[in-house]
Amino acid sequence: MTAPSEAQIVEAVTAKLTGSQGKTVPEAELVRLLATLELENDWTDVSAKRFHSVLSKNALVDSPSTATTATSNGEASTGAGAGGKKKKKSKTDAGVPRSYIDANVSIPPGVRAHYFDAVKGKGLVASRSFAEGELVFTEEAYIATPPPEAFDQVSSGELCAQCFLPVSSAPVQLAIKNCAKCKMRWCTSACARTAMATHHTLLCTGLNPAAKPLVQLVQSQKWQSLHCVARSLARLLSTLTPHNNGTASGKQSREQDDLIAAYGDFETVHARLSSFATVSELERRSRNPGWATEKASFEGILAQAYTALCNALDPYADARTSAPHPDPHHVQLDLIDAVKTRKGQIKDLFTYASFLKLLGRANVNMEKFGGLYSVHSFLNHSCAPNVQIRHVPERGILASMKVAALALRPIAKDEELVISYIDPSTRLGRRQLVLYRDYCFGPCTCPKCKQELNEVGLQYDPAKNSVKTFLDSVARKSNPDPQAQAAQDPSLEEELRASLGF
User: Is the pTM of this model over 0.85?
Assistant: First the structure.
């Protein structure tokens, strides 16, 4: 993480404004813009006050008409607490997943993207009413990673390496594609085309031998979040490979344009990946009940994974650049140098701190079967959800990388669309604890939790209680039977460990 200079802030904001209708940033957009730039550039220590000051000094922000600024949900905010004093920066800021809205995400009809604040981040709001059971949207995974139990079948060619359906279920047997360098197969030409354009060129152990230790680690540990990180970075770097970049004339040029239109260029993919809610994996892990005992062993395997990832994918890795006869890397350095920001962005992505964030991002955003979804990731949590996620049948089989969002009850226009990240039928204390430790937010204050908290005489006041202290109170009050609590603790521990990504 870096603390940007004034010049770097101005350069980043100016780049965002390029091509827009205006030459200044509206006051109402400052918070969202800062969150966006922090994620895209891995900035730290940029307060809202400094950001506003730099933009004002360089005539990049609209002059405020009043003492308050409008937040993205239409309410007024002065950014001050009681008595007009500015709030001190929370010590838990580092533990709050940060997200922003990528304007290139295609939002489905009937809903709109909405940025709430720096803590809650983005969400989806109904722009019309929905009836109970009505389909809200369907979506295919932006980053597809197989469920851990299916990885061996994918590696052997039994399951398609892109959609993870049985290759034997292919609608046309002649359309099945085989990789000439490994055992992976695809059930359709479309799956093969997507895989080659987004990850396989860089993660195939035959095409890129340096990826073998990484793939072996993912397979041996059933480490789904690491696999998601690998495929995310591979999708980004694949935009800089010969496969996605033809010559400047003829058929190859048209194919290149088609690939960019379908899968995005480097800047488009980088912005999309950066927009997902992001938090360090160590922040998540440190909330696990067994962290004190597993810390040393986990940090060791983290270091192993980081080295394997860099050796496999980082075009500037020491093992690649210093070896007498390094394995060829499919990323073209001239394409990196073609845009001055790319080299710095790639080097930042392969720092250890960024690696931890990428792991955290994968674990916070992955759907239960493992995919990262552009629209699905907007959905915030409620223990009283109005939307449920189902997997769409393909060829009579539930497709693990295609989801449908359905209205659980009538949804009114302008109502936020929310799903439950966990089983909402579990007891209050357990729900609060899992959300805090697995998704790094809390206490949950959805209508169901508020009602149950009131029933046990609790109300969260951040000025009086830390989150951890309050959650301890919730656990005691909501489950007065210590024996029942002890009986449930092992299953909770097992559930938490299972949710950590491997």
Answer: no
